[in-house]
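Now for a sample.
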Amino acid sequence: MHEQFNLIIEILGTISFAMSGSFAAMQKRLDPFGVLIIAFVTSVGGGTVRDLLLGVPVFWMTDMLTCGLIFSTCVFSMIFKSIEKNFKVTLFIFDSFGLGLFTIIGIQKGINEGFHPLICLTLGTITGCFGGIIRDILLNRIPLIFRKEIYATACIIGGGIFLLLSRLTDLSYTLVQIFTILLIVSIRTLAVKYHWRIPKFYGYETNEEM
């Protein structure tokens, strides 16, 4: 049951980030090949960096299901584009769910390797965030993680609570996973809605570089 749910999380995370990448690429009016490339790097970027750090085979190179999911999702998103006009909301929804889903995957990879909880949390944040970073760099945008929105912080808070609940309570592991994913999505949503942001202490109000 646990392994089956992990597979569901991976599938949903791949679809979410593939949709996120596709809609971001279509916002920039890329051609279909460009949309596919952006969808691909958004979906596998964080996991690739994680696996390279762990020194294990990169997951998508031996998993054709992931590649097939990305391709199918990309095609669907281009068809869906003619119906859905509000790119910004759609991009935000899929990006938030991908962030929550992939954060859990990264943390679990670290746990399976026997790493310290802080390292597991770091791996979760990398898995959740780095695909979006690569996507935004390729699209010539400042990555979300470096902007005003709460992004990596949501991964850290959610991931930290996941580790605490899974180690210190008797709650079902699957229930803890679901709660953590929804928590990360909720933090992202509330942060955008109420304009939460990390305070700056350096006092500069202009865009001039130092």
Residues 19 and 178 are 21 Å apart (CA to CA). The chain is about 70% helix and 0% strand.
